[in-house]
Amino acid sequence: MTMNAMQTIRIQIEKAPNGSIFTMNDFYGIAVSNNIKQCLSRLIKEGVLNRISRGIYQKPKYIPIIHRYASANPELVVQALVRENGWSIIPSGNAALNILGLDTQIPTQLVYISSGPNRRYVFGNVSIEFLHRSNKEIGPFSEKTALVIQALKALGPERILDWHIEQIKNQLTDNDKITIRKESRFAFKWMQPFLMRIAEGKYNG
Known about the structure:
The structure is a single chain. The protein is an alpha+beta fold. The protein has helices at 3-15, 33-46, 74-85, 93-99, 135-138, 143-155, 162-170, 174-183, 192-198; strands at 21-23, 50-53, 56-58, 62-63, 68-69, 89-91, 110-114, 119-123, 126-132. Strands 6-7-9-8 form a four-stranded mixed β-sheet.
């Protein structure tokens, strides 16, 4: 472990906001893998970082009003894991419904479909699961099209009502609708009529 590597890693962490999440890959190129691990272990002992799960680290964030440190933000953990692995991900199931305003219940488990392998991470009372899925669900779709596909899949063809279609349309821009119309041909056959209804808009083209 070189002092230059330690200083570089320490400075990078110091510049990041409190509560930031890191993985080994965030320090890629600073030193060889074993040296980075040694640096991170030392910073954990110093209290500069917390290890919240295997290979996942948090810069502590103290909240004075409640006199305690904040738990790791699950969304930041997800973003760090995506940076680490280079996956394409989309919120799945109830999470997709929640984002599009189709369900107000906050999911107790974060589930994402992923271009990578099946993985599950647990820290505290939080569970994050990545489920590998085919290109029929992930691509070649824009992020918004893929999100809508996941919401429709969570509802199922027998449960999709007119108000669902209208609610989704209200969350989309005209450009989103144009993209969904173009990309609908790559989706599941049963879903294509619903996507075309969602893509209806006041745009030209």
